[in-house]
Design a protein that fits this description.
Layout (H helix, E strand, L loop, with lengths): L10 E10 L6 E11 L4 E5 L6 H8 L7 E6 L2 E2 L5 H11 E4 L11 H11 L5 H10 L15 H13 L5 E5 L7 H18 L2 E6 L10 E6 L2 E7 L12
Parallel strand pairs: 3-8, 3-9, 6-7, 7-8
Antiparallel strand pairs: 1-2, 1-4, 4-5, 9-10
Length: 242
C-alpha cells in the first residue's frame, strides 16, 4: 500500500505507427499518433472496435513496440528499450487491469495479489492485506476466485495492479464483463485510486457514457486521434447510466 501520494507518470507519444503484417495484408492499427498525458490525469480512450485503442494501450504499456515513432514515459523512451528493459518497465512502472480478470483460480485473493508483490519487491503480507482493504475486500482475503462475484474478482485484479504502487495504471474495458451497478462500483474505485494515489490512468472503452467521468476524453477512429477534449465537470461514477 502506498505511503502517501506518488507522482503519476507523464506520457508523450510522437508519430507512433503500429503495423501488423506487410504488403496488401498489412493492418495499420496506429497511424502517426501524437498524444501528451500529464501526471495524474484520468484519460478515457474512446472509440469503436478496431479503432486502435487497445493497441495504443499495449504500446504505452510496453507490451508491444511501435513500428515507428517514440513512446516516452517519465522522460524515458520505452520504445528504444531492449526486452529486459521493457520487462523492467512493465514490472516497476505499470499496473494493468483487463476486461477479464485473469486470476489464478487455485490461489486465494491474498495469494493472487501476493504473487505480484513477490515479483515486484518481495513478499510483504502487510502490503498485500492493505491493498485488499483499500479495494474493499478486507473480509474476502482468503476466498478463492470461484467464491467471489465478478465485481469482487475485478477488485482483486485492481489490487494486484496497485500492490506495485505504479505511477501508471492502464485499464482495458475494465467493466466489459460486469453489470451496470458492479461496473459503476469498479469505476468509482479506479477514480478514487487516481485521486488518492495520484497515479495516471488511461482507460480504454467503447462505452461513451464512461467518458463522462474522465478528466479528458480522447476519441479514436481508424488508428488516429479524431478528437480530444476535457470534461468541465467530470461525472461521479455512481451517476453514470448505460
Amino acid at each position: 500500500m502506498s505511503d502517501g501520494k506518488r507522482s503519476g507518470a507523464t506520457l508523450r507519444l510522437e508519430a507512433v505507427v503500429k503495423t501488423y503484417g506487410t504488403g496488401e495484408i498489412a493492418v495499420h492499427a496506429l497511424r502517426g499518433v501524437d498524444l501528451k498525458v500529464g501526471a495524474g490525469e484520468f484519460v478515457v480512450l474512446l472509440g469503436p472496435s478496431g479503432s486502435g485503442k487497445t493497441t495504443l494501450l499495449n504500446v504505452v504499456g510496453g507490451i508491444e513496440s511501435p513500428t515507428s515513432g517514440r513512446v516516452i514515459s517519465d522522460g524515458v523512451d520505452i520504445s528504444s528499450l531492449d526486452a529486459d528493459g521493457q520487462t523492467a518497465y512493465r514490472r516497476d512502472h505499470v499496473g494493468f487491469v483487463f476486461q477479464f480478470f485473469n486470476l489464478i483460480p487455485t490461489l486465494t485473493a491474498r495469494e493472487n495479489v501476493g504473487l505480484i508483490a513477490e515479483l515486484t519487491g518481495g513478499q510483504d503480507d502487510e502490503r498485500v492485506v492493505g491493498v485488499l482493504h483499500e479495494v474493499g475486500l478486507g473480509k474476502r482475503l482468503d476466498h478463492f476466485p470461484g467464491a467471489l462475484s465478478g465485481g469482487e474478482q475485478q477488485r482483486v485484479a485492481i489490487a494486484r495492479a496497485l500492490v506495485k504502487d505504479p505511477p501508471l495504471l492502464l485499464c482495458d474495458e475494465p467493466t466489459g464483463a460486469l453489470d451496470l451497478e458492479t461496473g459503476r462500483t469498479v469505476l468509482d474505485l479506479l477514480r478514487r485510486v487516481n485521486r488518492d494515489r495520484g497515479c495516471t490512468v488511461l482507460l480504454v472503452t467503447h462505452n461513451s457514457a464512461i467518458a463522462e467521468m474522465a478528466d479528458r476524453v480522447v476519441h479514436m477512429r481508424s488508428g488516429q486521434l479524431e478528437h480530444d477534449h476535457r470534461n468541465k465537470v467530470p461525472v461521479a461514477a455512481e451517476a453514470l447510466r448505460w
